[in-house]
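hey
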């Protein structure tokens, strides 16, 4: 059976892993957003290894990680307006959790872009990935370090759970990812800027950055099926348990039902909740916790950054306990800013599925 090679983070081990990348091997490493699994952007065999190891569909593009915009220009084909937009965004947000999706040049391998006309570029801030790029002297293509569609890795334990029996090199950080959520992805097409994956950098941040550029349009793209950008599948970040978003509802029909029907609904609800964990926010549903098999709060104080940081680790933890269902309270839809980011991840985690729980059960 294959086994991974674990490298504690130090300069010698980063150099060794950069040599592994140069030699066409796959390396897992921490970034400020989440852990990544990467290879040389110039080596087709190495890129295909990423797809194989992750069991990643071939229509799901990869992000190319570079040190700065000057190192990325050769991989793009932009008009003057697009260049001005990209320069404004990268001057403001790079290095950091922003990925730009732009028209690609012929220097980008089709395996990176999933045979589309677009390439996703990011300049990460974490010193480990930056040193890997510098020492290997190639852009590094890297999706998140997880099995495709499953929960993203933000702690070393998550990575080892997925890849300990895989022939990869792993640079292990004793600390978790500082942000804990994937980068914002913005697609730039002439004067149209689409936020195709929300992240820590919000629409409001982007609007402020680009306020001096006239006649541009900035909008969110609705959650949909797989498109020409990474991580866009509607089923993503999924736990091994049945996962649904939910709201409470009052079924007025219960008031007109017989006692037998009312009791039957209550019994079914009770049994279901006894097999379920609730993911809450800001203790919104604290009065109902005892009805669930388990409860956890993304942020008891209502801190959105804390909720983002905790999200994937909470899902990993719920994967390990004896429950059948994960119910995520839908506090996030129809809100702006970081609420959209959390909603995007939770919606995909639940594969877009919602359910309703009758309040009459609690009476």
């Amino acid at each position: 059976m294959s086994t991974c090679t674990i490298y504690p983070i130090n300069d010698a081990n980063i150099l060794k892993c950069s040599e592994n990348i140069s030699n066409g091997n796959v390396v897992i490493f921490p970034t400020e957003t989440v852990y990544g699994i990467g290879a040389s952007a110039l080596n087709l065999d190495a890129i295909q290894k990423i797809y194989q190891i992750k069991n990643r569909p071939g229509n799901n593009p990869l992000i190319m990680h570079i040190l700065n915009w000057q190192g990325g220009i050769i991989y793009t084909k932009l008009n003057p307006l697009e260049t001005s937009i990209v320069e404004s965004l990268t001057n403001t947000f790079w290095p950091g959790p922003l990925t730009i999706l732009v028209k690609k040049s012929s220097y980008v391998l089709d395996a990176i872009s999933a045979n589309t006309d677009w390439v996703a570029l990011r300049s990460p801030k974490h010193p480990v990935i930056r040193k890997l790029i510098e020492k290997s002297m190639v852009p590094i293509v890297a999706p998140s370090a997880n099995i495709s569609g499953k929960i993203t890795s933000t702690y070393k334990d998550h990575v080892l759970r997925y890849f300990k029996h895989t022939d990869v090199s792993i640079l292990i950080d004793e600390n978790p990812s500082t942000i804990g959520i994937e980068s914002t992805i913005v697609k730039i097409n002439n004067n149209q800027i689409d936020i195709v994956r929300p992240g820590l950098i919000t629409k409001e941040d982007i609007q402020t950055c680009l306020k001096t550029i006239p006649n541009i349009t900035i909008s969110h793209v609705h959650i949909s099926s797989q498109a020409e950008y990474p991580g866009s599948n509607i089923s993503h970040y999924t736990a091994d348990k049945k996962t649904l978003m939910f709201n409470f509802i009052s079924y007025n029909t219960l008031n007109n039902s017989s006692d037998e029907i009312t009791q039957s609904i209550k019994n079914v609800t009770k049994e279901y909740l006894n097999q379920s964990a609730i993911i809450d926010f800001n203790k919104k549903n604290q009065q109902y916790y005892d009805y669930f098999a388990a409860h956890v709060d993304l942020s008891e104080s209502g801190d959105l950054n804390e909720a983002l940081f905790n999200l994937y680790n909470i899902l990993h933890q719920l994967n390990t306990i004896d429950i059948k269902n994960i119910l995520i309270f839908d506090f996030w839809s129809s809100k702006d800013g970081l609420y959209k980011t959390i909603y995007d991840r939770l919606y995909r985690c639940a594969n877009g599925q919602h359910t309703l729980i009758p309040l009459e059960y609690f009476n």
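The chain has a mean pLDDT of 92. The CA atoms of residues 254 and 262 lie 6 Å apart.
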